[in-house]
Write a structure and sequence with these properties.
With 292 residues, the protein is mostly helical. It contains 15 helices and two strands. Pfam families: DUF2400 (PF09674).
């Protein structure tokens, strides 16, 4: 990118200006940090990220309601509760595309996984090549390996669902990268697992290096990325998410997604309203690189 040095400096300034811990209370990951044990955080993170669509205040309430039936130690609950009993724990849950039956499918799949593999990380790690520490595996190849492992992770969880039919609601709750969509919420989960711990991301999976991550791209962040020259692709799909990831990697090869939280919260905090405004644009940390 021609403006890479300028953009990098502005994005670093954006990170510095973002009060991460204050913003965490307005982010789906906030509920996850309330658990003390890593195995509970891992489970809670998949529930929370899977429901991270819609208005933030509403989705955070949905996350609280979704996790409540699993008690203070969701990983333990999933390991020891009979699967037929797990199915009954969300009889009245409804949040937009997601119903209680979808959460029951997810709970059963996670319960089986925790009993068989011991952790969600172990299921993910099963499809990562053992020789990925070579220098040439950085960047593009590492992301390709990650996407393959992510697809296997999702497909296995889908196969372990309770209901015989793979419903539209459960497919939406747990999207497969192989289908070609951005899979924003799934990549958000992987970011939480890989990066940190830094008060936002949890850093629970040493098997997933930050340089392999894919940007959790949605409508709002894709607009910001276009304004900044990080995205040229018109379609909002998996290839767009990879394009943004690769361009961010040109700014920081080891940790390209360190800019994601601050960029996302420019939209969540109404700093960016996606149109030129003398009330909003002056003083924005990315204004000098923005083409809006």
């Amino acid at each position: 990118m021609k403006n890479a040095p300028i953009l990098k400096a502005l994005l670093e300034e954006t990170i510095a200006e973002c009060d991460h811990l204050a913003r965490r209370d307005h982010d789906p990951v906030g509920r996850v940090w309330e658990y003390e044990n890593d195995d509970d955080r891992e489970v809670a993170a998949l529930f929370a990220s899977s429901l991270a669509y819609g208005q933030v205040k509403v989705l955070r309430n949905a996350i609280v309601q979704a996790l409540a039936p699993l008690g203070p130690h969701p990983a333990h609950t999933l390991r020891v509760t009979p699967l037929e009993d797990l199915v009954t724990r969300w009889p009245a849950f409804t949040y937009r595309m997601t119903r209680g039956e979808d959460l029951a499918d997810l709970a059963v799949a996670l319960g089986i996984t925790l009993r068989r593999e011991g952790s969600l990380q172990a299921l993910y790690r099963a499809r990562i090549p053992h020789d990925t520490d070579r220098p040439e595996d950085a960047g593009t190849l590492a992301r390709a390996h990650h996407l393959q492992a992510a697809s296997h992770f999702v497909q296995t969880l889908r196969q372990r669902r309770h209901r015989r039919e793979l419903t539209r609601g459960f497919r939406y709750l747990l999207p497969d990268p192989a289908d070609g969509s951005t899979c924003k919420r799934l990549h958000l989960f992987f970011r939480w697992m890989s990066r940190g711990p830094d008060g936002i991301d949890l850093g629970l999976w040493p098997s997933l290096a930050p340089h392999a991550l894919v940007m959790p791209l949605d409508t709002h962040t894709s607009r910001l990325c276009r304004y900044l020259g990080l995205l040229s692709r018109k379609s909002l799909d998996a290839r767009a998410a990879v394009e943004v990831s690769e361009r961010l990697a040109a700014l920081d090869p080891e940790d390209p997604l360190k800019y994601d939280f601050a960029l996302c919260h420019l939209g969540i905090g109404r700093r960016c309203i996606h149109r030129r405004s003398e009330d909003h644009c002056p003083g924005c940390p990315i204004e000098d690189a923005c083409t809006l």
